[in-house]
Amino acid sequence: MQAEQTEILHFLERFAPFNLLPPAELETVAQAISVGYVRADQVILEYNQPIHDLHIIRSGSVEVLQKTGELYNRLTEGGYFGEFGLLRKGRVRYPIRTLEDTLLYYLPGEIFTRLFDQYDEFAEAVEVEEDRRVQYAVQQDRPKHDLLMEMVSTLISREVVSIDANASIRQAAELMTSAEVSSLLIMDGERSLPVGIITDKDLRKRVLAVGRSEQEPVHAVMSDDLVFIQHNQHIFEAMLVMLRTNLHHLPVLKKGELVGVISLSDVARHESKSSLFVVSSIFKQNSIDELQLLEADVRASFVRMVNEDANSRMIGSSMATIGRSFKQRLLEIAEAKLGPPPIPYCFIALGSMARDEQAIVTDQDNALILDDRYDPKKHDEYFLALAQYVTDGLDACGYPYCSGGIMATNPEWRQPLRQWQKYFANWITDPTPARLLHSNIFFDLDAVWGEKQFAQELNQVIQKQAPRHKRFLASMAKNAIQRTPPLGFFKDFVMEKDGKQNNSINMKRRGTAPLVDLVRVHALSIGSTQRNTFGRLEDIIEANILPHGRGPDLRDAYELIAMVRIRQQARALAAGETPDNNVSPDQLSDFERKHLKDAFQILSHAQKYLRYRYSIH
User: Fold this and answer.
1) 440-470 pLDDT per residue, tens
2) What is the pTM of this model?
């Protein structure tokens, strides 16, 4: 080895990740390195240019920039850069320029990627540093007033305006006029929190339009269905609450005390261009034909959220809220056409919509819970027509019919509450894997419209009964391990071989779905009240029923698998293609492939533990 290469070797021995390599390998690295010199204040790498070498700083210093030109890091002796581009399709992601005269070592990219693939400690050290940089970069890349990041407290611009519940309607209207507010919180002297709210709309509809006396107490016309939100929640969350509950005003609490009220118009002013406001458009449409025109807006909102680096929980919740809104508006229109329902009912969502985990590729899963006074001869004509209108409308709006027939048009899933209670009692107390195979979707249910307590009663039955029946849990667990992750004996990807989608992985069937299934089993075993997979994992981690560290691993694995699926769908939409759940590993970077294998390995271990915990033989 020449003297110059010996000096390079001694230098590399001082710094991670190179000091983690075997001595012989490090000698090979030293011999492959070339040397370069760059003067101060010079651009070394530009955004998106091809990159072929890992750059190591021998002396001097550089600035790492965002693609916008803003600073996000500085590196000095022993620092390295370019690894992100080398691991992701060979393009520079973060521009670099020198702060002072800088001496650089250049390690060929093919050697760096070989070291990354061959030596786990080396790869882990690179990933730790990269993850830290990526996290920082994502945070810095977000708009300063991003709907996804800003807190509710930023929308509060004035003190609370309120009035006593016994004040007259006229006094309330006068106060709203003088204070220049569109809503007024109603207080009861014995309580610290408001008991209701009155808005301009209430005064029009409940007072003027019906000729009500202005001297009546304001509590007679107030809305008492208040939903509170915390000051430190995201504006994004507040908007979802408004859209899901169809409430346009939310009182804001801080440490249990009222600090303000925000309205949908406040959110609109804050983020007037947010594509999530497609929900507001849904409720303005008056027919299936008009609703159908919004499908392009729904897809655009999905792509925008992906491009803004929203995580899978945000995206899933937003898309589920949009889907619920379509159902709610279709039900409103259907009732207007058919007349008032003859008996109370509850229209429920099942599966991913109930879990707040929808992507852009989804079908419809729904059912009807009817009042126990239900008489098929008297009532079924109405409810069949209602179900048919809604399911046809959903199909027209981009939510295809369920191939398994789990829809309210199926008489089996259009039953009175007492029959639904029998269904769940039979599934839980007399289970078999075959009986539960097509029924596990019903263990993710949520009310969309109507008598929501019907759905609440069924969820309470599940939460109380499921933990008591080991055979039920074992049967659910057996079904949960039927779909295995796509890893072969040597941890290579196992591709789909079903003709149209050869050499790809179905990320739902082989990734998110089996992970959702196994998390559901654990959640049922502890009586969790959560439906969202992340929420269930929080309960599972708190219950301490998994080996140490497995809960957070499952959470990270689910996020990664879900986002690979979501990003692939967004890429397809952006390219004008039809999105699906299939991903070809060739479309992924080396970095993504490696981490996807790790995520699938976590899923595989979790399925083995499921078999052990619930005594599956």
Assistant:
1) 899 999 999 999 999 999 999 999 999 999 9
2) 0.64
In angstroms, the CA 127 to CA 84 distance is: 9
Tokens 């790809």 -> residue:
504
> Taking Cα atoms as reference points, which of 132, 117, 115, 134 lies closest to residue 17?
115
**What's the topology of domain 3-141?**
Jelly Rolls (2.60.120)
d(CA 184, CA 181): 7
| Residue 78 backbone zone (phi > 0: left; psi -120 to 50: alpha; other: beta) | left
Residue 550 CA to residue 220 CA, distance in Å, equals: 53
Q: Is the pLDDT of residue 489 over 80?
A: no
Prior bond of 17 cis (ω within 30°): yes
Distance, CA of 557 to CA of 454 (rounded, Å) = 34
Beta bridge partners of 347: 368, 449
Distance CA 397, CA 357 (A): 18
Structural domain 469-617, CATH architecture: Up-down Bundle (1.20)
Which alpha helices (H) appear in 528-589, and where do they start and end?
Answer: 533-543, 550-574
Residues with Cβ within 8 Å of residue 372, at least 6 apart in sequence = 416, 417, 418
Question: Is residue 75 a contact partner of residue 58, using CB atoms and an 8 Å limit?
Answer: no
What are the C-alpha distances in Å from 398 to residues 125, 292, 313, 342?
45, 8, 21, 30
Q: Which CATH class is domain 152-273?
A: alpha beta
As a whole number, mean pLDDT of residues 396-405 equals 94
Beta-carbon-side half-sphere exposure of residue 166 (alpha carbons within 13 Å) = 3
Does residue 540 contact residue 522 with C-beta atoms inside 8 Å? yes
Range from 137-151, 371-385, 577-591 carrying the lowest mean pLDDT:
137-151
Q: Whose CA is closest to 493, among 411, 597, 423, 396?
A: 597
Specify whether the CB–CB gap between 66 and 49 falls below 8 A: no
Residue 266 host element (H or E): helix 264-270
Largest CA distance in the chain: 100
| Ranges of each domain in the chain | 3-141, 152-273, 469-617
Torsions phi, psi for 157 (to 5 deg): -120, -5
Smallest CA-to-CA distance from 398 within 342, 323, 449, 453 is with 323
| pLDDT tens track for 190-222 | 788 999 999 998 999 999 999 999 999 999 999
Q: In the predicted model, what is the mean pLDDT of the chain?
A: 88
- Looking at residue 204, what DSSP letter applies? I
Q: Which two tokens stand for residue 226?
A: 């208040």
Task: Collect all residues with Cβ–Cβ distance below 8 Å to 584 and sequence separation of at least 6.
Answer: 503, 504, 505
DSSP alpha helices (H): ranges in 74-119? 83-87, 109-118
Helix (H) / strand (E) element for 44: namely strand 43-45
Answer whether 397's CB lies under 8 Å from 370's CB: no
DSSP 402: P
| C-alpha pair distances (Å), 64 with each of 26, 207, 256, 402 | 27, 62, 44, 50
Identify the band that residue 169 occupies on the pLDDT scale cut at 50, 70 and 90.
very high
| Cβ count within 10 A of residue 549 | 9
